[in-house]
Design a protein that fits this description.
Layout (H helix, E strand, L loop, with lengths): L2 H12 L9 H17 L15 H4 L11 H12 L6 E6 L2 E2 L13 E5 H7 L1 H5 L10 H9 L4 E5 L9 E7 L5 E10 L4 E10 L6 E10 L4 E9 L5 E10 L4 E8 L4 E10 L5 E10 L4 E10 L5 E10 L4 E10 L6 E11 L5 E10 L4 E10 L3 H9 L4 H17 L5 H12 L5 H7 L1
Helix pairs in contact: 1-2, 2-7, 8-9, 9-10
Length: about 450
């Protein structure tokens, strides 16, 4: 049985048990999505978008739909994650299923809705139909997600509503050879403000598969900040898509921090559909051993006077590989566009590999656009300076690696989230305990 046919058979077995199965519009979308996945199969290196990332190893695996009520596996990991965290709103998912007993949504302002996807499909399906997505959108992994995702988070803010504390979405993978397919929605009406954090964690020895899609819709002058911290096991597979649409004057920030998984792919895009929009795509990844991380990004400037910044950094060790492909598209009418894109990679070993392709596609002359990419090793001048101040060579190197990462972390505006991200990267790089003491 082929890997693709296995997923088709899973859909046939599970479709009627998925939340929202009795909604005609959703059942139809899911059926079209699995048909598209079956027709396309897993992406291969023959596709330009996947030239540097092979899913052959993923396709060889057999994963199972996990059982329910695996709260016992998440309690310890969740307690560690929340230790020292500031107040917020917490939704916890175990193997892709909402765990209300571990969640703490807290008090929300009037006009704010924070719920599981399953709950929203039961209580307000009409609100989801317009934003759920179509089977033809995205790559084939996104089609598989639409077909089989049964849960996730649904966040909706009415006009002018602001949620001050971050909303934390915690996805815990507890079953070896388990699967979690989740679909998240963030809908912010005009002038609304929200910060959402997606945490992905799992057992250290688990070979698991995560397929996640997050859809963001930001109304006029809305402000949406999204931070994703991926810390799954070194044997995990992680495929993700983040799709944002921004109205006039809307601000959207994406911070993608990839510190786990044997293979991770993040497709991140935003469409600036109204004048004066602003987007920030900010990313940091660390790979070692034989790990592979791929970021594929796209920013569409479809309206005048929009600003975007796209800045990614990678730390590569062992025989790890980092891939970055970023495209900025500027439409003919998008005059006064101000866009900058940059990818920088730090190689810590001779066997590490970095592939970067920054791209600009511009169809008018009244723009200010730039892109660039660097791949290098530890700066010897900086190393000499630190050693002249009394640090031994290893500690000096560790400090320079952390400084390289810190430029990405500095763009995270919320202090508590910035501290959590800093602790996560210190736990991965050499000499992290000493850097923790210095911090």
């Amino acid at each position: 049985m082929s890997a693709v046919q296995g997923w088709v058979d899973t859909f046939r077995a599970e479709a009627q048990r998925l939340p929202g199965a009795k909604l005609p519009w959703l059942a139809g979308a899911r059926a079209r999505a699995i048909e598209r996945f079956a027709a396309l199969g897993w992406p291969t290196n023959k596709l330009e978008k996947w030239r540097h990332t092979s899913l052959a190893l993923l396709a060889q695996q057999e994963f199972a739909v996990p059982p329910v009520d695996r709260v016992d596996l998440a309690a310890g990991a969740l307690a560690q994650l929340r230790q020292g965290a500031e107040a917020g709103h917490w939704l916890v998912f175990i193997d892709g299923q909402f765990a209300p007993g571990l969640s703490d949504i807290g008090t929300l302002p009037a006009g704010a809705c924070v719920d599981s996807l399953a709950g929203a499909l039961a209580q307000r399906p009409e609100r989801l139909e317009a934003v759920y997505g179509d089977a033809e959108e995205g790559e084939s992994p996104a089609a598989l997600n639409l077909a089989l995702a049964g849960d996730g988070a649904y966040i909706e803010l009415a006009r002018g509503v602001a949620i001050e504390a971050p909303i934390h979405l915690v996805f815990v993978g507890g079953v070896s050879k388990g699967t979690q397919l989740v679909r998240n929605f963030i809908v912010a009406d005009d002038g609304a403000q929200v910060t959402v954090v997606e945490h992905y964690i799992g057992r250290d020895d688990a070979t698991s598969f995560t397929n996640t899609v997050t859809r963001v819709r930001a109304g006029r002058d809305a402000r949406v900040t999204h931070l994703k911290l991926q810390q799954e096991s070194a044997q995990a597979f992680h495929l993700a898509a983040l799709d944002a649409v921004q109205a006039r004057g809307a601000y959207f920030a994406s911070h993608s921090l990839a510190f786990g998984a044997r293979l991770a792919r993040n497709d991140i895009s935003s469409r600036l559909e109204g004048e004066g929009g602003e987007a920030l795509l900010n990313g940091l990844y660390h790979v070692d051993g034989k790990r592979h991380v791929d970021h594929y990004t796209r920013l569409d400037h479809n309206s005048p006077r929009c600003t975007s910044r796209e800045l990614y950094r990678g730390i590569l060790d062992g025989t790890g590989r980092g891939v970055f492909t970023g495209r900025i598209y500027v439409a003919p009418g998008a005059v006064k566009t101000d866009a900058e894109q940059r990818s920088d990679s730090l190689l810590l070993s001779a066997g590490a590999e970095s592939d970067a392709r920054p791209e600009l596609e511009i169809y008018n002359d009244d723009v200010k656009c730039a892109h660039g990419s660097t791949v290098g090793q530890i700066d010897e001048t900086g190393l000499f300076y630190l050693r002249s101040r009394g640090l031994d060579e290893q500690h000096a190197r560790n400090l320079l690696v952390y400084a390289f990462a810190a430029e990405v972390l500095a763009r995270i505006g919320e202090r508590s989230l910035r501290s959590s991200a800093a602790a996560a990267i210190r736990a991965r790089i050499p000499g992290g305990q000493l850097l923790e003491a210095l911090a």
